[in-house]
């Protein structure tokens, strides 16, 4: 693909001319009675909305979510959000980049590499109870685990985000174990790998992610806790044995506070550490994303998951 | 047993002479170097502490927790708590009431009657998924369910309290179902029967009740949720089927608020009702207990589980 | 009335053709300078808004709030809320249903039946102080009590809702009294009847309900407390006598928490029970309403008075 | 009275020899079986406790609360609280100061002067509704109003404290009215005079002050609100007229926050001002008391009513 | 200027014809593709917005922020906010009032008078450390101090508001010092003068006020604390000497609560008083403004800085 | 020192015989009138208290805080806390270990090694503004920085704890920088080194640590912020330049929440990371300490700084 500017790299007022993916399309009727399309364009730099006025029935058929288009327009702002005033629109030509996957953000690592890295960590889980539960559950949910996002929005909300977030925590965990030798490394690693696995049932999938009924009524913490119980039943592990109780505690407590949905607060050193590393990686990812979208010397958008704070991007020479 | 006054019915300053159970005995050394016994006496009216000074080694052997004694002394108050100044103490004679069970508070219903009443309710759980899970789990934990208290302290903290609290909620639930016909009765009854069943693992047993390691690290909500998952595994029920998800939600949400340890808040009418009926029965039991120990025209002791409030007992003629 | 579909029973995109009440009408000017009407239609299934474009002056005179109309249109959604795209509109013919009362939600019981039921309860208030205060105040505010809603929105926000909510609590209270005999029934019933009576002054009336100045500056709790004081003055009851103090406490404490506007928290068993039954009936009513408007297998709208939670309606076969 | 040092002016370790009032006396039995007296001594500088060992029956009769004694002893500290080790004790001689009133803190103004100052303010309440309500209620509770403390402990917890606190607020209010002329002065003054008047029923009296049953079950806010309603009934004022509603709002809202027991928050400029002046005067009084008991360069005791903060007394040369 | 009605004194529906300042101008494109101007008009009575449709390029050049215009139109309401439907618009003639300063709200006192009043107070700061720090910092930031507003919005958000708010607090402080003689007046005055001085760096200036980067990253409390440290460095005052520590504490603690941005809570009587007087003056100013914009017998708009409360303006005859 | 058991390694009831440091000594008078010593013994395993009865005046002179003694006694428990019943006591012989430093906990690294490690990090602070401020302030407070504890109690409350905590954070920071390359490493390192430096003024010193007046009135955050300002004044750095503002923000925001004493919340990625690493290291240190004092299979003492939670030490075979 020739080096074109991307959606979020245009300044307000600038002319835009680029390829983009139609992420969502809604047909609406304007006050003058004519139909128009409410479009969301996407590429790896982000998303922007625009209105396609006076859409014919052919336009409605042509511009469907998932198609790649060539867009020319003008970058504007509407009520504080970026918007494009569409000047022309057409589907991608045969000789243009038209693979939707090229326009979608995904994890910086390939699924195969992530799987390899996690397998290496599993070798370090020397306790056989934890090792076998982890392997059974990863194997059961393998495909979803390496493609699902880690969230509907906020941090790691991209394809493969769940596995990538897990790997980031494992990397942090390795360093922490090296620095504080009294930490039970196998327990921390097993907890880290499983902590968000319930999201493969809580969320609907890697695209147009929503919460499932199970997600809303049980939550990913109790979902994965139930998965661990099922695994123990299958492996004939005693639910009341200490290794099982410790591992379940790691998952149940990982949100840190009851208010955040953990039914118990951390009561093990390793559970406290897992909770804090989870928060650390999620925060860094969110702030990195937000800062990249912010001009030097400016504050970015308010981040809901950071209590509504906006963050400053220092001037370039810092 | 001849009609004697009971422990808590003596006024401060009054002479006491009655049979009582030694609930706990601790041997301590006084500042003068002699050993003494720190005793807690119990009968169905409540508990009171007293010190037995200058205890001989024979006394230490004689006065052990679980023995019934004849106590004479004087009712006093020490730092706001009732206390008895012991004047004499001896073990119960052969012709005196010496069965410890006669001095312990227990549920107002017999275990057999409670079991019969719960079995009747199970007939009304017409959904076969819920019915079979309930029966399997009740059968698995039958003995503990009918003997455990509902709590370490606070409400229904007596032998059989767990089953009695469950029955009280079921009675309330029947009336609510009759008044509001859109409530799903089988779901409400199944949830009510199982909601606190995890306490048979969270707590150590009917006497000298403490929290187990599982209780502290998992909590009774996740414990019973795990039991339901195990039951489904055994019964070959699909964990993702709606009846199973709904039943798990009933249990997970029954504390009402995340701050109180529910990993999800009620999102079903029946889950909200179960939470409120649980709170209603627990409150009435606690306030009934507290009021009975309070003189007319006075406020009773502060109740930790009611946010530290003390409650007023109106004068007799109300 | 022939069996027609009602406002809220049409699916999005479906053609609508039915009689409805104009609940509110606002004349506005469109950006093209022409006037249009912003209409809210109502029947017993709920409410929906629609815009009547290019309204002539005759239209403005014709379509006034309170008139019954025949509406044809198409069911749409605008920013998440139901809306009708109006295709035609005319006033009801002489042979069509045109009584506004037929389109308005009201209590499921007739005022006369509610009055009879409450009178029966008053016989059970055997304490003469409470009995006479209740009768004096019900008699003073009789008409409003049986026609006012229980709230501006949220629960029981329909004509007669205040009395109906009161009766529902009394029914719950009867069952609770039967199950827990130590509760002072006359005190609980007297408190239940009076607890929300202040709303007849706090709210403006059964239609287009708003808060009055007294409602905003005093609140219905202090309003009814003042009414009780006035009743005592009239009946020559000593304000410092225990029955009066207990009854005032029942009303003052019924919101349960200071944060919810009670100047004191419940300090009597009966006050705690009244608070919880009030909450129980209000919750069930709100959730019943919300669930009825939700499709099976879906979550309904967020309920402000339930802390913003949305509730799930299980699939039909549950 | 010759210039003697007072109770709180001795340093730890210093010999004490002075007259003091026995504020409270409790007879206890020591571990050696002998009775002793737990005494609290008081003078205008504060209070201190001490133990009188091996008390004879004569001692018990002699040293009763309310008697003035000559005390010699040594100033000590026990668990962070001041204490006196008693060396000798005897009742006051005929030629010594033995009037208990000389040892009790009271308001810095005489009752007659306070009454005169409040009467002057009443002349400025030009609205006749407010003027007559204020006069009727002050006249009804005149004696208690000028002798009661403003609180059981914390601020103005001395004889006459209620009236003195009221006057302090009125003085602040005069200055505020002069600086901000849009404030409705008569409303502010009427609210200030009545705001804490309910304490004459909420509290038991000027000495050994406790909460009454009415105080616990209704609270002083609703008590005085009821008094205003009664006054209106007697004066034939319409409870729904605006002046009455405004005055009741002033009282109901004066704690500022629902969490502090106001059933409504201030919704009038004057109600907000009254709330803040109430807090300002109470804070200054508490901090003045606390600072006086603190050595220069030290932090004083933690003040419960100031959220547990302790306050610093700067070194003398500031 | 002939006595004309002002912007906020027209009733809804009334014809408007008056001079006003263009406070802000935004060029937008309507759905029909034509450009229009989104205007905010201002005079001393307040602000109102209006749309100028079909704006030519000449109109865009002509109507710039800061120009004075003659406006005729009709007073309307749009989504609860006041709005003007513009009928005609032109720039001010040579013989009309065209000085923007005449249309902008500013402090009720002239800068020179405020400076004089503050200088008088400085004479009363008899401690030389505090006196010299105050004089150095006031001199350094003199121009900004007398022109900046006290806030971006909410209270004293007008030119000179910072100095005026400071003077109001000083006037309150004088009265408080007179009434409570144990207050350290020089410390209170020095703290009052400096408490908000950091706003001259936190805010961008008197017009179109925004937060600076320093304002967002440091906050005005730490900014002025740093200024005091710099002043001490310049004046060779020891940072660890008690007068410096006390003065810094006055500023650091003046928001009263950690949640409001004070790094320490008040631990000095004077710091507590400063905090409360700051709040008192700010509240009275906000409520005075809000009440002036409210019709008698109505509640005004919700005030964000008063926790979202709206305030009542009593009917005229009160 | 021959391998002896240490203070905290004896079981309840076991005989103790070992060398220990007298950490504190208080002379008290028993109820029988004789003086006794309230002693706290310390070695590197922890602290335990004991009473030395019937102390002669010689004993009082002999057993002073700071002396090393040989203690024989019996390990007991008093109200849940460990206690030793003293059987014999004497000062250390000439041939016994009598260097107090051998009995005191200190940082696991030597001061010289810590200084070397921090100097290495300073080389990585490539921004000259941050580099010079850090060097100036470390040089100014060098001695205290390497000897002070990081807190009065809770985490790193030992000699050298402040520097050791700083180094631990720097080690974590290095790993985080390696994993997330967009983090500004020099800013993070500079912030980490200075973040708690204010404790050298907030706390009184390495032994018997208390809060100073500056500590109470300013807090260590504002203290070090003032130190940075002073450094800038000395180095002629502009307080309004971005590097200075960013560095001050790092320190001001490092407690993360306003409620924890930060006057501003983190608004920079690096500030958020510093806050989380600070919390992570402090938590791991506290939990490591607490777990070491807990028997396998038990929960330890409640930790105030971890919201009162107690932590579980798994059984040995985990």
UniProtKB/TrEMBL annotation, chains A, B, C, D, E, F:
The keyword Hydrolase applies. InterPro entries: HD/PDEase_dom, HD_domain, NA-bd_OB-fold, NA-bd_OB_tRNA, YhaM_exoribonuc/phosphodiest. One of its GO terms (biological process) is rRNA 3'-end processing. SMART domains: HDc. The keyword Endoplasmic reticulum does not apply. Residues 165-283 form the HD domain. GO terms for molecular function: exonuclease activity; nucleic acid binding. Keywords: Exonuclease, Hydrolase, Nuclease. PANTHER family: 3'-5' EXORIBONUCLEASE YHAM (PTHR37294:SF1). This is HD-superfamily hydrolase. It comes from Secundilactobacillus similis DSM 23365 = JCM 2765. The lineage of its organism: Bacteria, Bacillati, Bacillota, Bacilli, Lactobacillales.
